[in-house]
Queue: 2 jobs
Job 1
Amino acid sequence: MLRLSRIFFILLTLLAVSLTGIGVLHAQSNGNGAPVVEDIRYGLNAGKTRVVIDLDRKTPYRTFLLADPPRLVIDLPQSEWKIPRSRPVTTGDVLKSYRSGDLDGGLTRIVFDLRKTAVIAGAFTLDKSGTARDRVVVDLSPASENLFRAALDKVQGDKNLSGVPLSAAAPAVANSTLA
């Protein structure tokens, strides 16, 4: 009987150690691996539509516009997600919905469908402060079709994000469901 309880104790100890090890590995992968998209928020700020991507760490990005239909694209290094990877946008009159996916070359692409043409009025990062997380912020201003078309060649942020130049990533998007 004593021997059976000793075997049971050893098995329970091994199980506990195994589960602890799995938890540590999971914590390390989230802490040192891919950035985590924790939230995407949008709202109006001084007449502009602001998109805010909350991340678990400081993360490089690039953003640009695509036409036919009008879209805003934000590229990040390949990321994990704590929120849905697509959803409709019910705030404001510029954004319609977003969807995301992972591209070859280690990129995550977020595509916002626009209700009407707009231009990128500003794009920047904000560092973590207080309870606020690290953020990528993109401001959009409604614009005429001509201004929108003139802004199609402009890229803000890191043009060679993750070693994939914009020209190499664009064809993949044009032929994907993310375009």
Job 2
Amino acid sequence: METLKAQQLIVLVALLVSLVGTLLLLGKINEHGQSVGATSAGVEMRVLQTKNVERNTQKADAETVVHVIGN
């Protein structure tokens, strides 16, 4: 019984190592150990945050112009 569990554990570890190796070869994991999908999602979030800041800045500038012209 012990040898069966040991064999199953060895097979499981071998499969995990094989999966990680395949993902590395396919380029799905970058050199920092992050999945490429997670990295691109982080970049996309950063772009959206930057766009929001730009939009808020433009809105504040427009409100300032209206305020100055109004006075």
